[in-house]
Amino acid sequence: EGGDGEDVLVGGRGHDDLTGGAGNDFLAGGRGHDLLLGGDGDDTLNGGRGHDELFGGDGNDTLNGGLGSDILSGDAGDDLLYGGRGDDQLHGGDGHDFLSGGKGADLLFGGAGNDDLNGGNG
Fold it and tell me: What is the pTM of this model?
């Protein structure tokens, strides 16, 4: 778990729960089914290979689902969400968001604000 500064948290092969806290954080999940919570700040979250859940929190966040079937939620702020290869769910939340589904059969929900949605190749 991170603190108030800019944290770098990297998961391993198992199922990881990573929490960035306040600040501009970088979180990477790894191979397992991971839960990534960015918190306040402009965060970058990378899910990895498993079926992951990524929550950006407040701030302008970048979320990359990766290879599995993932759930991505940008929350408040102008967020960039990229689903990846699996069958993903992308939720933009408040703000002007960009959502790109990727290769799987994806569900995209823009939320409040002027959002750009790209379904991808699935």
Answer: 0.94
